[in-house]
Amino acid sequence: MRDQDLIEVAREFGSPVYVYDSEKITQQYKRLTSAFASVPRLRINYAVKALSNLSILRLMNSLGSGLDTVSIQEVRLGLTAGFAAENIIFTPNGVSLEEIEEAASLGVQINIDNLSLLEQFGTKHPDIPVCIRINPHVMAGGNSNISVGHIDSKFGISIHQTPHLLRIIELTGMHVNGIHMHTGSDILDIEVFLHASEILFNTAKHFPDLDFIDFGSGFKVPYRENDIETNIEELGEKLSQRFKEFCQELGRDIQLAFEPGKFLVSQAGYFVAPVNVVKQTTSTVFASIDSGFNHLIRPMLYGSRHEIRNLSNPEGKPRFYSVVGYICETDTFGSNRRIPEISEGDLLCFDNAGAYCFTMASNYNSRYRPAEVLWHQGQAYLIRERENFDDLLRHQKDPQIDFAAQSAKKKASAKA
Questions:
Q1: Which residues form the Orn/DAP/Arg decarboxylase 2 N-terminal domain (predicted)?
Q2: Which residue among 181, 275, 305, 329 sits deepest, i.e. has the most Cβ atoms within 10 Å of its Cβ?
């Protein structure tokens, strides 16, 4: 979409505001499916945690996507958005047996990532098919917080625990219909991904009744002009060939699944926020926007980079700015960025704001979360209203405690 469209959205719905371009999401989905078009049975399960708005989920459903969910709430969002239960996989971590049982009762595919819960679930529900999340002990990802397949990770069942895993399956009589891995996010080296895939193929040989193998995701998208990204086309060519060879060894076609989130929605998202004040100090020029890490925490949490553009003065003389927020802690979106001259009231745009941005927003400092808008076929649709003061109070309860009277009574007792 055009910068002028973003300006018009901000004028119509106010700012700060998140804007998502449906055409870009569609392009990314088709790019991924095209890369693996030679695989007879392919399933793309969109990772709901990346961007969970119902309108986005309904768009994914229309494209033919399934869903990857990590909480019972995401499962219910998927069902509400119209997904068939059999097209939803539930891959939680560290949840209770009760939550897994609740998801199973809704008919979704269960994916279990630890031996304790596997044994408990298999003992009580041996007839419910389960997928097993394997930890391949492969370090991959752009940040330690999003590298989840290494030996010290809390995610998945270690490949070194395979004998124990097989013993549980034998003793419970449970049915394993899938295996899964996810090594991390922002993967650049496809050889690392292919190496982890070989580990999964070898593990798969222990399960003769598999219906699918889920290779996770973590594909890197470009964060700036000429930035490097995962070569999906090359990965598609190499992994598709290896997967088809595996199916030939198995004697039947099973399903190849992925669970992309960032790859599908990151580049489709824009965060637009106005500049409150430009502040010159002895060493830095700060551009303080009407937002903070309560709206966009990724730069502070992951050190992620989002290109920052001045929508209001794109042809202005570039100057160096540190773009910061209004939170009472350090919330720097970008240090010493070369941006066309910024004035108070200008609209700044943060690119790559579609994944793990609004979904990680909070009410810290009692600030409101912003609106979300979908740009679809040249028209803006409000898909989430901006919060207001009533939203901050909505679930708070006043038990009508007379604190002053209790304090006075306590003081009187102390004097006596």
A1: 24-266
A2: 181
